[in-house]
Model the fold of this input.
Amino acid sequence: MIHSMTGYAVASADYAGASAGALTIELRSVNSRFLDLQFRIADDLRAAEPALRELIAARVARGKVDCRVSLGDGAQRSAQQLNPRVIEQLTLLAREVAKAFPGAPSMSAAEILRWPGVLAEPVADEAGLRATLDAVARRAVEDLCASRAREGEKLAGIVRARVAEMRRHLAEVAPLVPEAVAAHKARLTERLHEALGAGQEERIRAEVAVFAAKSDVDEELSRLAAHLDEVERVLSRGGAAGKRLDFLAQELNREANTLASKAAGLRIADCALELKLLIEQIREQVQNIE
Done:
């Protein structure tokens, strides 16, 4: 299956651990020459980046992929609780201080909260968080690949349509080549007779032979057909085909340029121009294929 480098996916799940909230992973991808992974992850989830990088790289060959990972909101993540054990110890110490210094003022609530250990950070369920993150990440990557596959199918359809149109032009122009070459040879022979006069038959035949050799486009037509066969074969095989298709588009363009330079007639030149336009349309599409 052909995949585009353009895709989008988002997946989320509720996490009920200490850092409770909605765990969300958002993936966006656009075209790029190579695989370029960019991560925007909350600090408390930063340790998950290597696993996410490995998971995405296993399914995506090319493209710039932006991965955003978030968990709930700041209020939920920063929730704290009183530590009963420390409060009990602090109460006992306050009684001892009151006995030793009867007139000393009691601690205020703010001072108690600032006492080291009174506020306990929630104990993170790292295993549970990793399991939830892994499940959400796999679902997001799966959705991203499905999105890229749908887009890739459309791109492949566009390329196949252009290939079919190019084949139609080649089928129309192939029978015209011998007739156009013969007509041009006749005109050239007549002009050479007028320019060189009688007694120059050998030179005229030599000049006409050189023209005939330069106007022979059978090889170009055969190569164009072969390259179109290869394009269809690559599309049918699927996989990471973008670079191969881009190379084939360059080869098709080179043959079309040669066909245009050798054109012995207006219709052949028009065909070469149409081929170049279709090839350019193919190149625009394959730039987005993985």
About this structure: Confidence is low (pLDDT under 50) at residues 74-78. Residues 126-173 form the longest helix (48 residues). Residues 97 and 104 are 8 Å apart (CA to CA).
